[in-house]
Amino acid sequence: MDPRSPFVLNTHELGRQPGAMRPVERSVPAPDDFGTAVIGVVPTSPVELHLRMEAVMEGVLVSGDVDVQVHAECVRCLRDIDEARTVAVSEMYFYPGARDAALAEGDEEAEDMQELESDLIDLEPALRDAVVTSLPLNPLCEEGCRGLCPGCGERMADLPADHEHVVVDPRWAALAALAGKLGTETGADDAEAEQGRVSDGER
Q: Among 53, 108, 147, 163, which one is most buried in terms of CB atoms within 10 A?
């Protein structure tokens, strides 16, 4: 554990006296891995800690809120999403040796909890778990997002209500092309006939 890390807290002032409490107000830069492939905390953005450390019999309880800046892409329309989030944090840190005692007494949850190193606590793993598990698996820019038009790829929200694409069955594509060609030729013949009638009238 690096005592110089902004995520490391020193519990020495608590004196291991149950009930002793110390507030923690700190702004730290976000690491690169606070998130998933589709959503996460903006790297190096400020992570605002509003926590308190409280000494209990077995160790130190850290609880409170964390404010983060999150960036994501809407899973339906790929629009950028930037928003502020507040995440609740509550993590128990055992005094050295106290976790083994808790496990011996049948506290299975103690196995996943951390221990203090001397008087130091490393908050980063607990903050990462709290933040990542609070993020949506499928972020949306808004409820009811209609995504992208399958025909042109534009966002449906940016298109008129009557927007549509007529899809011709491939089996009829050749017939449609032939009908278009015949229509063009018929139109040309009609135009020639009309021109002929006009010429006769002039004579």
A: 53
